[in-house]
Amino acid sequence: MFTPTFTSLRRAALVLALSACTSLASAASVFQIELDTSSLVAANGPSGWIDLQFNPGNSGTPYAQALLTNFFGFGDAANAVTAGNVSGSLASGYVIGNNDASGYNDLFHGVNFGGKVGFTVTFSGDLDPSLSGLGSAFGVSLFDNSGTVALGTAAANGALVVLNWTSLGSAVATPLVNQIGTSVSAVPEPHTWLMLGAGLALLGGVARRRRQHG
């Protein structure tokens, strides 16, 4: 007599869990970025620069911003040079908007070589109702202590990481080939974890009831 109930509960649990997994695998708006600088010390010394840019595709791109937090491996807060729509600090987090009239928004900050350098970036902003494909690109590069020589990649633009904020309100990574270890991982948002947890809990409840009434 319990078979229909178990079947319904099992289906509901699977739907919740699968929906959460789909969300985890889809484009996201929060990313953890890590760069392994251990191989850069011998040729470049103990310090250098990280260049973080968030620039629009063109003048018609909807407004968006990138919030940078959870820094590690960054140097003294005084070693920061900004251009365009950039505000904040290491302590409070930096915000880079994509809407400066120059079309160029840049944070150039000192970092320590020899270990991991990283941060969390959270994208937000207006969607593109026409879905025209206009977006903004968030780029990450490393430079030597002089601030003139790009490190860790042979790419012409010097980028180690490129994340594209899309018209749908999510960000997707552009695959790049780098000479240093680079990690870009999507950070699931709270509602995704809640959905996954609810699905797993429901599956556990179904299993317990089957044992009790089996």
Automatic annotation (TrEMBL):
The keyword Endoplasmic reticulum does not apply. InterPro entries: Ice-binding_C. The keyword Signal applies. Keywords: Signal. Coiled coil: none annotated. Residues 186-211 form the Ice-binding protein C-terminal domain. Pfam families: PEP-CTERM. Residues 1-27 form the signal peptide. NCBIfam families: PEP_CTERM (TIGR02595), PEP_NF038129 (NF038129). This is PEP-CTERM motif protein. It comes from Duganella phyllosphaerae.
